[in-house]
Amino acid sequence: MINPVREMWRHCTQLPVQAQVATATSVAAKLAVINYWEMPVRYRVLAVTMYLCLFACGAFVQGAFAQGDSTAQEAAEAPAPDAESAAAEAAEAEVVPEAPIYSSRALRDMSLVAQATPSDQVLWWPEGESQVLALYNRAISAEPVGAVLFVQDQDLHAIRPQRLQQLRLALPAFGWTTLMVTLPPPDAVPVPVREAPEPATAAVDTAATAEAPRPETEEVFDDTSGEVASVDELNTPQEPAAPTPAIPAKSASEMTDTRLAQAIRHLHDNGQFNVVLVVEGAGAVRAARLVAQMGFEGFRALVLLDARNQLQGEAGDLLAVIAKLSVPMLDLYEDRHIADERDVATRLVTAKRAGHENYVSLQMPVYEPSQERVIKRVRGFLDAHAKGVKVDNAQVIDAP
C-alpha cells in the first residue's frame, strides 16, 4: 500500500515553491480519491487536513502573485512627476537659515540689559548704524542737588558692576540724578612683530640670473582671430591691481570719548550742570581723558573705586588729572588686588605733592553684598563737598 503522506512529500520537495503547492494539492486530491477508503482512520484524517491546508496555501500564493503583478503594472502606467512640481517640492524641503536677532553681540547684551531695567530709565542713543544704551535715573526729590555720571570698569556692562548698580539705584532718593552709558571693551593689544633673521648670503650664479627662457605653454597665436601676440607685451610684467583701502574702524578709546561726551551733553540739556564723576577700576583712565578734554573746572567732585592708574591699549593719565584737579576727591579701595595698594600709594603721593587738602583715601571691607558702607561713604562725601542748589531761569554762558 502506498503511503499518501510520503508520496506527497516526495513530490513537493522536488519543485519550486509555487509548483510545490499546486503539485501537493493535486497529489493529495488523487490519493484522497483513490486510496481514501483503503487507508487507516488516522491517515484519512491526516489526508483531509493536509488537503485543506494545501488548498488554502495555494489560493493565498496565487492571490499574492496576482496582487504583486497588478501593483507593478500600476506603477509602470503611472505618469512621471512633473519637473516643476519636483523643483517646488525640493525648494520647500530646503531649510532657510533664520536671520540673527541681533546684529552684534554688544547690541544683544545692551538689549538684554534694557529688558531687565524699568523702561523709564532706558535711553537709546544713535551711533552710526547702531545704537548705544544709557541708563538715566532722575532724582526722587523736589529739590535736586546734582547729577552723577558713572564710568564702569573695562569689560563690564551697565548693570554688572555691583557697587555702581547699587549707587545708581540708591542716590536718586537723596536728590542725585544718575547716568551710566555703555562703554566698549578695550581693543586687543597687538602681538609685537618679530624681525625675521637675515638669510645666509650665497654666491650669485650668473647663469641662473640670466633671462629665463619663455615657457612652452605660453599662448602666442590666437586661433579665433588669427593674430600673433607681440613679444614685447608678453615679456612686460603686469602690475598687480591696487588693493581696495579698508575703512578703518573706530577704536575703543574713540568710541568711549564720544559716548561720555554725549552723556555730558545729555545732562546739560536736562539742566544738570552740577556733575560728579564716579569711576571704577580702569574706567578711571577713561574718565581722565574726559576731564582733560572738557576742562578741569567742569566737574564738582571725583570719586574713585578701586581705580587703576593705567589701561593697557588706551591713553589717559590719571595722575596728571589728580595733580591738576582742584575739586574734592574720594579714593576708596578694598585691597583685593596686588595693584590696589600700589596704585593708591602712588595717587596719595601725587595728591600730597599737589597740595590737595580735600583728597581722602579710605580702605573698605572686601566683601559687602549690600554695599551699604560704600553708599553711605559716597553719599556723605557728596553732600559735604558737591551738593548744589536748583537755580530757576538760569542762563548758561559758554566759555570763549
Structural overview:
The protein has 400 residues and is α/β, with parallel strands linked by helices. It is 43% helix and 12% strand. It has helices spanning 4-12, 17-34, 41-77, 83-93, 105-115, 162-170, 206-209, 231-235, 252-269, 283-294, 318-324, 338-354, 372-385, and strands spanning 122-127, 130-137, 146-151, 176-181, 275-280, 301-305, 329-333, 359-363. An eight-stranded mixed beta sheet has the order 1-2-4-3-5-6-7-8, sandwiched between helices. Strand 6, helix 11 (318-324) and strand 7 form a beta-alpha-beta unit. Helix 11 (318-324) runs parallel beside helix 12. The radius of gyration is 46 Å and the shape is extended. The model has no long low-confidence stretch (mean pLDDT 76).
Query: How many helices?
Result: 13
Give the overall silhouette.
Answer: extended
Q: What distance separates the N and C termini?
A: 139 Å
Rounded Rg: 46 Å
What structural category arises from helix and sheet content?
A: alpha/beta
Instruction: Kindly report the spatial arrangement of strands forming the biggest sheet.
Output: 1-2-4-3-5-6-7-8
The portion of residues forming beta strands comes to: 5-15%
Largest sheet: 8 strands, mixed
Instruction: Tell me, rounded to a whole number, the average pLDDT.
Output: 76
Number of strands: 8
Low-confidence stretches: none
Question: Fraction of residues in helices?
Answer: 40-55%
Output the helix-strand order: HHHHHEEEHEHHHEHEHEHEH
Topology record:
Blueprint: H1 4-12, H2 17-34, H3 41-77, H4 83-93, H5 105-115, E1 122-127, E2 130-137, E3 146-151, H6 162-170, E4 176-181, H7 206-209, H8 231-235, H9 252-269, E5 275-280, H10 283-294, E6 301-305, H11 318-324, E7 329-333, H12 338-354, E8 359-363, H13 372-385
Parallel strand pairs: 3-4, 3-5, 5-6, 6-7, 7-8
Antiparallel strand pairs: 1-2, 2-4
Helix pairs in contact: 1-2, 2-3, 9-10, 11-12
